[in-house]
Amino acid sequence: MLGRVRIVPLLFLGLGLVGCGFAESPLPEATAGPDIYLEPDTRAVEDQVPRNATLASLLASHDMAGDVAYAVVEAMRPVFDPRRLRSGHPYKLVYGPDGRFRRFEYHVDEDQFLQVAGRPESPVFEAVLIDYKKVREQVAMRGEINRDHNSLFAAMDAGGGHSEVAMAIAQMFSAEIDFNTELRLGDSFAVLYEQFVRDDVHVTHGDVLAAAFNNDGRQLFGFRYEVRGEAPGYYDADGRSLKRQFLRSPLPFEPRITSRFSYRRLHPVLGTHRAHLGVDYGAPAGTRVIAVANGTLVSAAPSGGSGNMVRLRHTNGYETYYLHLSRFAKGLRRGARVMQGQTIGFVGSTGLATGPHLDYRVRKNGTFVNWLIEFRDLPPGDPVPPDQMAAFQEVRDRALALLPGWQSQRDAPVAANTQ
């Protein structure tokens, strides 16, 4: 069972929109008297961009004169590249009482829309990107791993939660829980996160503020806190960092392991027993592959049976290898600096592979190691500095009080920090 509760609206952003999401002038207040029909002073056409449409073809499909369409396209270029037009995105055309074009509006993304408008007496148009009006809210959720929902993602989905929140939880506790093998029936979790809402419809998820996980009798906590001068990170109830130098996996979600590290594995293509010095992750072709840590690009090139392979060098004697990629990310250059989480390629089946997957390998001081074991032994990041511990405890206690099902347990971690 999983519950989901909106807690409190926090912030208003940008400009308000109605209808399919675009701004309109407010209606005048009604006055007493009989109803009188008034001819509307504008006419609007609302639709979605069809497949394979260009901006020019879209405007032409509404019988817009060529010179007007050209002026509209040229006006938007300084703020929006017309080639970024995407099928399925809503748009709106507004015409005046004389039938002449007045305004074009297009949904760019969940944060902005494009508006191109002109005056009736002028052939010149002006374009601007306008922020949607959105409300930032806090949402508290809890759930349980059971027979019907035996994974974190399934339990989250069962309660109307989003996979992005599940991925954030999996990343937060990746050093403590292997979500592929260590979940148990009866495990439970709670999470407090932000979401941005427009017109009372969920739009996007923000940051996960706190999470708690009961795993096989172990109680784990994670709280988002920003140490002065550093990027925000996650810390346990005692202020110890949950971050490791390396991410658990090179895929942007908790992946499915299809083959493990072994010195004697039956090769699925060659049919002979040979060492498999990495971990295979099943993933659809085209899935992003990310760098697990900051490092330097050693190579990005075809490599025989390994297919398209990226090799990165990191500190402390580590190197990572990413095999069987369908293609490399753009802009990779030998010797270039690569940042943790940066896209370096995409899952494929190049080389000796029976299907799309990622073969991920780690070498330490010249020897390949079993990553699933090595990751557990990595030291954590720096804890919250002593001079900021009081501020962290305030953040922790506020978040803990809002985690459903964990309120009665909040004294335990507080006592651990005050001894």
Rg computed from alpha carbons, rounded to a whole number of angstroms: 27 Å
N- to C-terminal distance: 36 Å
Total discrete domains: 3
List the secondary-structure elements in sequence, H or E: EEHHEEEEEHHEEEEEEEEEEEEEEEEHHH
- Principal-axes geometry comes out as globular
CATH architecture term of the largest domain: Roll
Q: Looking at CATH, which topology of the largest domain would you report?
A: Nuclear Transport Factor 2, Chain: A
Number of helices: 7
Name the beta content range. Answer: 35-45%
Describe the biggest sheet? Answer: 10 strands, antiparallel
The level 1 CATH classification of the largest domain is Alpha Beta
- Binned, the helix content reads 10-25%
Structural class by helix and strand composition: mainly beta
Mean pLDDT: 83
Q: Total number of β-strand segments?
A: 23
Low-confidence stretches: 10-33, 408-419
Give a short synopsis of this structure:
The protein is mainly beta and 419 residues long. The chain has helices at residues 55-60, 66-76, 152-158, 163-172, 371-374, 389-402, 411-418; strands spanning 3-13, 43-48, 90-95, 101-107, 112-118, 125-131, 134-144, 188-198, 201-215, 218-225, 233-235, 256-259, 262-266, 273-276, 279-282, 288-290, 295-302, 308-313, 318-328, 337-338, 343-347, 357-364, 367-369.
